[in-house]
């Protein structure tokens, strides 16, 4: 790439913006040195762009009658290898997962006409395993809210009652599973965004252990809380998709010491003899909890006991603090991620140049398209940086080992924690919300889900009943990289419920 050389006046202005004192001698040196410095950079940064894919058909958004929940942003057809574990499976991707040659918008008008030139790692794996990508799915605007009502493409409606919301930010990934032509979907989770829509729509959704599923080629919110995972109608299909997408990826800097995954589709059971289940006291009886939701999860605990598990109440007093720790990490981290144009400075692995270019153009030409809640987040992050530097973010990150240890201590005595995924069932849709409404409307939904984005423990939401016809989600949380135990318990529970 060609790097423009600044003239003397531009050097002075650049120094002023950087808060640098620069004298005549420094100016002379910069004028002499910068051309040679940038010429070397040009050699390093020259690389051929990958050829555009030639087999990717994209169609306009579906008509409302074909998509009553507004779950699909665009239809596409990308065939897989024709052989493998996913052969015959039709897959939908959340609108933040890169599919080369197909527009990616992250539920927003902010990114403009960004078209990835490379598949996300998980997409390559699914295609190699025979899966066919058939849809890009609606999501919350830049993945920053949890109700499902704040996409640039309109709200995602609940398949059980279209006067209500599907949840977010992966609302389309849950609601699309009620379409006849979509078998499996991919969601993303930074505060509960897989599990909340799974709970409200009555499907199965897994937030894997942090790092188990590669995030390369997926637009994130903050690199230390970004998760991607499978969603499906059944536990078996979630396990099947996890088999394909899990595992180490040299291009993903988020991964560290990822073990070789087991064969998750073998994690099945009809009895749970010897397994220990802990009902997490702090996950029930919250100020916003609906009694029917708490009771349905307690009934599920009794069902697990009938299957042979030992079930007892346990306590993690830091559970509320773990959820609150997400806020400074997300606020300051997301602001820094945006200010760096998603370039990922300080991270090794693959860097999406096309995405960087798109974010630069978006910040220059479409800053007004940032959603109102993100503008408040940027304001808060700027204030925290000006007043405290990175101290607030650093202190929040430094709490993580303590929080991980608090759950691990209890998980040494039980195999899984049980609690409601969300304290409530799906809310009614309503008029567009302002920044305050968007933020507060999400904060109640993530009380049980957010802690495990901070600690990185795997968490699986499965349907466990209904209240007034609306699904209730049961969340199981396990030890790091022990998704197999969650899937085994969930399969036995699903089998019992029929």
Description:
The chain is globular. The strands form 2 sheets. The chain has a 12-stranded mixed sheet with strand order 1-2-4-3-7-9-8-13-14-12-10-11, sandwiched between helices. Strands 5-6 form a two-stranded antiparallel ribbon. With 498 residues, the protein is α/β, with parallel strands linked by helices. 36% of the residues lie in helices and 15% in strands. Strand 3, helix 3 (121-128) and strand 4 form a beta-alpha-beta unit. It has 15 helices and 14 strands.
Low-confidence stretches: none
Could you state the order of secondary-structure elements as H and E? HHEEEHEEEHEHEEHEHEHHHHHEHHEEH
* Tally of helical runs: 15
Shape: globular
Structural class: alpha/beta
Task: Report the end-to-end length measured between terminal Cα atoms.
Answer: 59 Å
Overall average residue pLDDT: 92
Task: Provide the helix percentage.
Answer: 25-40%
Strand order of the largest sheet: 1-2-4-3-7-9-8-13-14-12-10-11
The count of strands amounts to 14
* Largest sheet, strands/sense/barrel: 12 strands, mixed
Give the amount of beta strand, in percent. Answer: 15-25%
How large is the radius of gyration? 23 Å
In a nutshell, what does this entry contain?
The chain is an alpha/beta fold and about 500 residues long.
């Amino acid at each position: 790439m060609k790097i423009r050389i600044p003239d003397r006046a531009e050097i002075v202005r650049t120094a002023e913006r950087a808060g640098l004192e620069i004298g005549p001698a420094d100016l002379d040196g910069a004028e002499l040195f910068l051309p040679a410095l940038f010429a070397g950079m040009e050699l390093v940064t020259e690389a051929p762009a990958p050829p555009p894919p030639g087999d990717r058909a994209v169609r306009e958004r579906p008509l409302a009658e074909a998509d009553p929940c507004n779950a699909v942003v665009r239809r596409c057809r990308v065939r897989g290898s024709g052989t493998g574990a996913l052969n015959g499976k039709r897959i939908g991707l959340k609108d933040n997962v890169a599919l080369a040659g197909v527009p990616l918008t992250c539920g927003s008008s902010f990114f403009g006409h960004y078209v990835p030139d490379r598949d996300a790692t998980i997409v390559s794996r699914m295609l190699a395993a025979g899966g066919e990508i058939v849809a890009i799915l609606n999501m919350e605007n830049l993945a920053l809210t949890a109700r499902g009502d704040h996409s640039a493409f309109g709200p995602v409606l609940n398949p059980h009652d279209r006067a209500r919301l599907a949840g977010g930010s992966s609302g389309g990934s849950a609601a699309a599973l009620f379409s006849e032509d979509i078998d499996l979907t991919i969601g993303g989770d930074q505060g509960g965004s897989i599990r909340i829509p799974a709970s409200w729509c009555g499907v199965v959704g897994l937030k894997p252990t942090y790092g188990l599923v590669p995030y390369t080629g997926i637009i994130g919110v903050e690199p230390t809380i970004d998760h991607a995972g499978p969603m499906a109608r059944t536990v078996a299909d979630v396990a099947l998709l996890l088999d394909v997408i899990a595992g180490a990826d040299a291009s993903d800097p988020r991964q560290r010491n990822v073990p070789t995954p087991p064969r998750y589709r073998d994690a099945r059971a009809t009895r749970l003899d010897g397994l220990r289940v802990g009902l997490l006291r702090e996950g029930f009886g919250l100020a916003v909890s609906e009694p029917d939701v708490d009771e349905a999860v307690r009934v599920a605990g009794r069902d697990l006991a009938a299957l042979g598990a030992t079930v007892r109440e346990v306590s993690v007093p830091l559970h509320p603090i773990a959820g609150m720790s997400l806020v400074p990490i997300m606020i300051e981290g997301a602001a820094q991620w945006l200010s760096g144009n998603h370039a990922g400075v300080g991270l090794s692995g693959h860097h999406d140049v096309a995405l960087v270019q798109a974010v630069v153009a978006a910040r220059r030409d479409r800053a007004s398209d940032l959603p109102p809640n993100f503008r408040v987040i940027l304001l808060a992050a700027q204030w925290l940086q000006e007043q405290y530097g990175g101290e607030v973010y650093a202190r929040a990150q430094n709490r993580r080992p303590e929080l991980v240890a608090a759950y691990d201590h209890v998980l040494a005595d039980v195999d899984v924690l049980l609690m409601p995924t969300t304290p409530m069932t799906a809310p009614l849709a309503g008029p567009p919300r302002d920044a305050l409404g968007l933020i507060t409307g999400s904060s109640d939904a993530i009380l049980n889900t957010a802690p495990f984005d901070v600690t990185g423990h795997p968490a699986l939401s499965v349907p466990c009943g209904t209240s007034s016809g609306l699904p209730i989600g049961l969340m199981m949380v396990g030890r790091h990289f022990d998704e197999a135990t969650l899937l085994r318990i969930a399969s036995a529970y699903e089998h019992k419920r029929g």
